[in-house]
Amino acid sequence: MNQDLGRLTEIFDRYPRTPQSLIGVLQDIQKELHYLPSEALEMTASELGVPLSKVFSVSTFYNAFSLTPRGEKVIRVCVGTTCHIRGAKQLQERFENDLGIKAGETTPDGKFTLETVACVGACAMAPVVAVNDEFHGGVKLAQTKKLLKSGKKA
Fold this sequence. Notes:
CATH topology of the largest domain: Glutaredoxin
CATH superfamily of the largest domain: Glutaredoxin
Order of helices and strands: HHHHHEHHEEEH
Shape: elongated
Oligomer: single chain
Distance between the termini: 28 Å
CATH architecture of the largest domain: 3-Layer(aba) Sandwich
Strand order of the largest sheet: 2-1-3-4
Number of strands: 4
Number of helices: 8
Number of domains: 2
Structural class: alpha+beta
Mean pLDDT: 90
Strand content: 5-15%
Radius of gyration: 17 Å
């Protein structure tokens, strides 16, 4: 068994072994491993007594889940209308240049994933960049390196 998957026993132990625990378990696995590997989905199905097809269906339905490895820090640039008007495209391009990846990709060292999102619902703060679950409003191009550095420390 993969060394990372050994840590999943602790996650399963936090929940009742019932189908109702599925989303909570998947959220914790995602947080621990930064994605949902197929082996983890199989273990989840077995541990919770849920068909693998159901586990896979739930893990592909919700955008919060990823079946491919993601970085320790996920940078999301809002590209909704207001953010777009206020410079989100330039922010996205700066992050792409600084990280050497395109939106939707993860750095080779596994530290960062860059994503764009349609809207984060914080238009008054546009443009908005989220680093994991921490939201930053009114982001200027000069702040992108600072956001990356703060992400590297964690």
